[in-house]
Specification:
single chain; alpha+beta; Glutaredoxin; 2 domains
């Protein structure tokens, strides 16, 4: 009976491959468990800690609502500054709303979110007093927080302004704008 060289050497070749596969699976499993146990990234953690929108707008505190997305690099870049602002100004309620979550579609439409990060600013009575679109530096967030706290006019920053009336659009204009959204780059 003759044996081929491969029949004797085959298990020896598969052994290192099997060990490598098991080690790879183990590493992937450990990384997955660490992400799951840490609550994900900072945006996710902040969103989980944020107040429900209705509660924030009715409790008498000024409120900053950030419309964001997990994939938004600008939102990720600004997250540590938003978290620091919240720690320095605990009397300002922070609400994070993910534009990719269909549950927030009505708010995305209501506040005209067409780019992210989009900050919607509310006074203590829950009235929208302004918005900020784009990345904000820590000193700009501080200026916004001071204006919210002091119930004073918003600072003059590029991309920050008073909001327009939230009256419904006339039907002919609504059809045109309905295709524009935060993910459309329109």
């Amino acid at each position: 009976m003759s044996t081929t060289p491969n029949s004797q050497g085959l298990p020896g070749r598969r052994g290192p491959q099997l060990v490598l596969l098991l080690v790879s699976l183990l590493v992937v499993g450990v990384v997955w468990l660490q992400r799951g146990s840490s609550g994900g990234d900072l945006l996710d953690q902040m969103a989980r800690r944020s107040l429900p929108l209705d509660q924030a707008l009715q409790n008498g505190h000024p409120t900053l609502v950030e419309f964001y997305a997990d994939w938004c690099e600008s939102c990720r870049t600004m997250a540590p500054s938003i978290e620091a602002m919240q720690e320095q100004h605990p009397e300002i309620d922070l609400v994070l709303l993910n534009v990719d979550n269909p549950a927030w579609e009505a708010q995305v439409q209501r506040y005209g979110v067409n780019g992210i990060p989009h900050l919607q600013l509310f006074d203590g009575s829950g009235q929208s007093i302004g918005q900020s679109i784009g990345v904000r530096q820590p000193e700009e967030l501080e200026a916004l927080a001071m204006a919210l706290e002091g119930n004073t006019p918003l600072p003059q920053l590029a991309g920050v302004g008073a909001t327009s009336s939230l009256e419904p659009l006339e039907e002919s204009r609504r059809d045109v704008s309905s295709s524009i959204g935060p993910r459309s780059h329109g």
